[in-house]
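Contributing new records

If you add data, match the layout below exactly. Sequence lines come first and carry their own label; structure lines follow with theirs. Keep one chain per record. Anything else will be rejected by the validation script.
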Amino acid sequence: MASSTSPQDVTMSQSTPHPPVDDEPKYGGFSRFEIELEFVQSLANPHYLNHLASQKLLAEPAFVAYLSYLRYWTKPPYSKYLTYPGPTLKHLELLQQERFRQDIISPDLVFALVAEDIKASLEWHKDS
């Protein structure tokens, strides 16, 4: 039976990492869980999203597949570890859309996201 995958297809593990345990392999001294947590939290920063777009990473099929894989952070066992779940998860969802991945190169969109995030933060603090 011939394989139906093309050379550009990227196979991603369907398993999600678990919070670190002592015997887990380390990568540069960090667990897979810690590395993915740090990366997914960096997506809360619109300027970083713009940087990823300027490096053309958001057009790479392997990177887009990785962003899709990271959606496991939206589930409660994982989302509780996020420092800023609102903007992190909002931007992760937006990154699933090709149009957003193309448009985030625009400084106007970056500034609009920053303003929106600041407004949401101020509203949250006002209510608490």
